[in-house]
Every structure is written in structure tokens, then in C-alpha cells.
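Job type: complex structure
Entries:
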Amino acid sequence: MKLLTEKGIQATPMSAIAKAAGTGMGTIYNYFPTKEELINAIYLYIKNLEVQFITRKTNESSLKIKFLDYYKAFIDFNLQYPDCFAFMDQMQNSPVISCHTKEKGKAEFLQIIELIQKGQDEGIIKKMSIEAILQFLAGTMTAYVRWMLGIKENERKKYLDHQLRMVWDAIKE
Amino acid sequence: MKLLTEKGIQATPMSAIAKAAGTGMGTIYNYFPTKEELINAIYLYIKNLEVQFITRKTNESSLKIKFLDYYKAFIDFNLQYPDCFAFMDQMQNSPVISCHTKEKGKAEFLQIIELIQKGQDEGIIKKMSIEAILQFLAGTMTAYVRWMLGIKENERKKYLDHQLRMVWDAIKE
Amino acid sequence: MKLLTEKGIQATPMSAIAKAAGTGMGTIYNYFPTKEELINAIYLYIKNLEVQFITRKTNESSLKIKFLDYYKAFIDFNLQYPDCFAFMDQMQNSPVISCHTKEKGKAEFLQIIELIQKGQDEGIIKKMSIEAILQFLAGTMTAYVRWMLGIKENERKKYLDHQLRMVWDAIKE
Amino acid sequence: MKLLTEKGIQATPMSAIAKAAGTGMGTIYNYFPTKEELINAIYLYIKNLEVQFITRKTNESSLKIKFLDYYKAFIDFNLQYPDCFAFMDQMQNSPVISCHTKEKGKAEFLQIIELIQKGQDEGIIKKMSIEAILQFLAGTMTAYVRWMLGIKENERKKYLDHQLRMVWDAIKE
DNA sequence: AATGAATGAGACTTCATTCAT
DNA sequence: GATGAATGAAGTCTCATTCAT
């Protein structure tokens, strides 16, 4: 991941990946038939990691707090694994990631979808298409993390509350 | 642009670019010393286009309407030139775009910055760091356009109002 | 070597070299990072061959005979491997051969140097700087071989004695 | 010449030659149909210069002194125009110089040939084939000049006498 | 006559993939 | 199963030459 994002996919030979992975090129090809499939596999692997990280906590509080906890968890994950973020950010629009992979990656946000729908039913969250809200949230989060990763770690904290306020104001009824 | 985004940078040889441009490879190299510099130049060219497109209109209305007009103009530009959007979206995080180019690209949002600051002074817009707001807005816009470009043109209209509502609610005091 | 000297460095693509070597281009690049380094390596390889060829024989005769035997050995080597000679002759002044390589190539004439110094001590050879004598000898030898290679093999013999006479007269006290 | 020898023929584009010559590429092609012919023309031009330089002086002294004057004149020419020397030295064995050009270049040493033959007739110079002597002399001279050009100018003087002594001893009866 | 922008053939070099070990 | 040397297709870039100005 680190190699792939630092230099770009095309500038990272399989030999370098094998070396960094402490294995031989041939071994990689025993598990992934092509470089492309390796990258798609990494993509899905990270998506999985992400979901596991985020759905870990299931506290019992108000819907708003639950929602913001999710949102914060997303951010935390990406700030904690900046290489993962950089990788995903870069692959998002790359022709290397197949549609099939993208579909698979999406199918894991059930919990948050349910939460938002519940919020809409209770009149707390704006009555819009789920897709609109999800896209909106993803956009804000990506931009926020990308920004945070560009500034020093000790300066990050102060921006979180503002971000959460904007996000909540955006979707709340 | 089209080739570069459809196939990816590395899968697009200079020979193909030259052919599509109706010129010889050598000619391109007379103007851009490397493929990388060509891509950086396209990046800046689009940024320029964008700014010109957006700052065209200077209506005399309320700050909120002015702001949303800007926001809509951004969206319009990108929906109108989907190739440009795809290109920028893909290059944004690519190691091919140099820091220097990114800096140059940024230095053109004075108008919108001034508008937001005025809104903050008037108590209309949340008192947060400009950067936080700009990053937030950029994130929402990119996600929105990317989404819109993925659905049929006649279905797009209905989502715009929702998007604008979320955006405004997010930043308004 | 043959290709490189016959056609010239630049007129000999690596693909042709690989073909002649019965291998793939990539394989060559696994051992020599650039064409230039390949050529420098060939240069040093020949220098080595040469030294081994020349220092083979250690007869026990007069200093003059020993010296002329060395000189003849040099000539023999180059006449025996005309491709080597052509290569060295052409690369000698080429900007492709690095200073470093030239230095390395030089460091192998200790035996002949010692012989000349002994001759000087015994009053048999002119008391001049070793460098002056070595350069002189190298010049005569190169010219002689180049000439010989231009004429038919059976006509060569008769010129050797004359050459040796001139060489010895030149350096003898 | 300077460009051609410093970088090598292949590394010197016509555009660079034109620039250094203060003219346009097209203009060069009006006079020399190809790069190769330009180089051959330079070769002949230098050969001509050389002959004119050497045959300038016709003193009336002993044959030995006359001969050594010629030899010194050759050396002087090359030390005075080191670029010419480097050029000729490099082109000597290059496949770029055509046989025809080489032949033309040779046809200009009549004076020195006559001098040597006279010396042979008078029993002053060894009775060998003229070609053998000419090749020998050319070899010594080239090596000497190449060596001299590699050392500081103020250190050169002291080696000349030694060189002349070796050369004369080599060919004198 | 002088020019130099345009051109594409062809150079060097990389690297995904294979396969004998 | 692991390995990495071998491979050549394909990429970037150069530059001799042309030709409209």
C-alpha cells in the first residue's frame, strides 16, 4: 500500500512489492493472477478492515450521538491508517478497480443506512434519498481526512467539532 | 483528457495522445518536456477554465443566493465538462501532479473566500476557519458531481435542491 | 563487440546485441544497468584478457629479448582477437568510456613497467619518465596493429622485424 | 567540433550544432545533405588545415633537422588546436568516416614522404617500406599529443626532447 | 537563402509475467 | 509451495530530416 500510493501504481513494480512484502515475485503470483487483481484484493481488504473497525462499537445513546460516533469512527480509522486512506483515495477513481470490486466494497454500510433511515422515520434527519445522504457524507469525510493528513497531528483536534457540527446540521431536519 | 481518464495515465501512451490530438508525438514534446509536465499543464488549464466559468456571473442578490449560485456554477461546470471533472478527480491524488501545480491551482478562489468571510462577519455563516469550510464544500461538491455523472441526465435535477439545502444548512449559522 | 565496432555504438541497438548474444534484452539489463555500463564492462573485460595473455610467458633471457617478447605478445593478442582490438581502438577516445574505467584499465602494466625500470637501471634503456616510454610504446603498437589488420595475413610477417627494430632503437640507450 | 568530441557524435543533435554555429538547422542542410556528410566534411577540412600548417615552413638545413621540424609542426598543430585533435582522434576509427574520405585525407603527405625517401637514399634513415615508417610515426605522434593534452601546459615542454630523440633513434639508420 | 516547427522512426529502458529449479 | 532470472512487448523520449514560411 505504502509503495503503491507513494509512487503510484505504475511506478511500483511487482518486484518492489515482493521485496517490501519480504517474499518473492513468484509467490505473489501464486495467490493473485495479475497485478490488477492484487490491487483489487487490497482494496477489498481495506474495505473489510474499515467495516470491522467502524461496527465494533454499539453504544446505547441518542440517534445523533450514535450517528456522530459512526462518523468519527470512519475518520479515526482513516487517520489511524493513513496509508489505507491514501490507497483508497487514489484507487477510488482509478480504472484499475473493477466495477465488480466497487460493488462488493459498497455492500457493507447496512448499519449506517439503517440508522439514517430510522432517523428519517423519527423526523430527526432530512427526508431525502439515502443515496444522496450517503454520497454527501462520504464526500465530506474524504475531504476532511485528506485535509487533516496534510496538517500536523497536534493541530488536528480543534477542527473535529466544527466538522461534526457542519455534518450534523447538513443532514438534520 | 478523455484518453487519460478512461484508460488511466499509464495505459495511455503518448503516441495515442498525439494521434487523438491530430499531431505527432515529437510536436507534443516540443511544448511539454515530459508526459508528466503535459499532465500538469492540462491540470492547470482546467483549473483556469473552471475559475473563468465560475466567476463569470456577478449578480446582485442576497449572500445566500450568491453563495449558492457559486456552488451551482461549480457543479454546472463539472457536469457540463464531465471529462474535465473525471480528469481532475483522478489527478487530484495522483503523485503525478506536483505540489507546485497544486499550489498554483489553489490560488484562484479569492472571490468565494471573500464571500464566505463576509457571510461570517454578517453572522450568516458559521465562524470557522475558512480552510475548514472550503475543504468541506469541495468534498461535498466532488462527491455530488461524481454521483450525478453516474446516473442518467434526466434524473439529476431532482437531487440538486436537496444537495443545496444540505450544503447551506451545513455552513449557515 | 563485433556489432559495436562494425556499426558504431549508436547504430547498434541493444535489441541487436541481445539477439547476437542469444538472449533477451531484459536479461542484459539484469546485469548491466545501462548500455554505457555494458560497454565499460566489455572494455575492462578485454583489458583483463589482454593482461592475462601477455603475462603468461615468463622466459629467462636477456632484458632486450624479454621486452620484445612482451611487445610481440601485445601485438599477437590484438592480431589474434581483431574484434577486441577494433573495440578498444574505437572506445579509447569515446566519451562513453568513463575516467574510472580508464583508470582501472591502466592499473595492470606493472610487469612491463618493472622491466623497463630495470633496463634503465642497467643503462640499457633511455633514462626518461616511464610514462613517456609507455605512451610511446602504446602509440607504436596501436598504429602497427591497425595497419596490419588492414593488409592480408600472409603479408604481415615481413613487417614485424622492422617494427621491432624501430621500437627497440627508440628506447634503447 | 567541440560539441561533437565532448559529447560524442550521437549525443550531439544537429539542433545543438546549428545553435553553436549561430545558424539554423535548415541552413546546414542547405550545404550538407546529411549529418554524416557534415562530419566527413569537417574531417577533410581539418586535414587540409593540418597540411597547410605543416608545409608552411621550408627551411634549408640538414635532413634530420628538417624531418624533426616536420614532426614538431605536426605536434604543434595538434596542441594548438586540441579540438581538432580530439575530433580527428575520435573519428579515425569511426564507421561514420567513409573510406573515400579517409583516402582523400591521406593524399597530402607527399612532402614528408619525399623527405624520408631522400633520407633512405642517403643512408640516414632505415631502409624499410615507407608505409611502415609513416604508420610508426603517426602512431607515436598521436599517442604523444593525446598524452600532452592530458597534462598541464607548463609541464609539457620537458617531454618534447625525449620524444624527438626516441622518434629519430627509431627511424635513423 | 535562411529558418525552425513538425514529424515519426527508432533508441533505450522497464516490468508484468512465466517457469525451471 | 517458493523463488527470481529470463523475457520481449510496450513505454517514454530523441533527433535527423523536411518543408512551408
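Summary: Residues 35-171 of chain B form a domain with the Tetracycline Repressor; domain 2 fold (CATH 1.10.357.10). Residues 130-150 of chain B form the longest helix (21 residues).
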